[in-house]
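Observation: inputs received (chain + manganese (II) ion).
Thought: call the complex predictor directly.
Action: predict_structure
Action Input:
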Amino acid sequence: MHTYFISDLHLKPEQPHVIKAFTEFMLGKVVHAEKLYILGDLFEFWIGDDAAGLVKAEPLLELMKQVSTQTECYFMAGNRDFLVREKFTELTGFTILSDETVIDLYGTPTLLLHGDSLCTDDIKHQEFRQTMMTNTEFCDQFLSLPIPQRIEQAQQARMQSHEHKSQVSMEIMDVSERSVEKAFSEHNVSQMIHGHTHRQNTHQHRNGVRYVLGDWHRTNSVMSATHDGISISNEAII
Ligand code: MN
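Observation:
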């Protein structure tokens, strides 16, 4: 039996080929798997479970619901879909995990995280995490706004984020070595899996192994774990 990990699909109506690849993956591999973990940024943006229609997510939520009746499915939010709430669980049948959760992966304690918490050299992003993403008061207030107002605010935030990304170097947007080593020791694990940076790879660190998932625009990155070990492969790009 397999356990699959994916992240950073950034699903949006403008990219039907990614939606198609996700659908085929869910109905092909995932229905026959033991577990599926989605490690964040499944959607390009999410401004509330009541606004799923904005990213034409309804058929995808239904697909997820259908698959979750056969396979144990978990969802961890990323920095784009951190406004997922209980209604999402109801609609998809997925169990929501909080960022930085340790699971038992075939006998090996494994830290799962979206990955942006490790990018501590990116001060602007850490500010965003602190004041918005992980700030319950901010999130509750934002979700209580009428949808058009939420759209407006989200668009402003995205524009600022684009501007920021064009100004900082690629190194700053990657994980910080010190934060990775700290996460291994704080969670007392020697294996972690994350996405966010879109840089599919396997890294050996002083105190553990770090598996990084790629995105679904170029690589369709899928990590597969069994009793025999872990491998990262790439789904066919249609
Ligand atoms: Mn991300």
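Thought: report the result.
Final Answer: The first helix runs from residue 16 to 28. The chain has one domain: 3-236.
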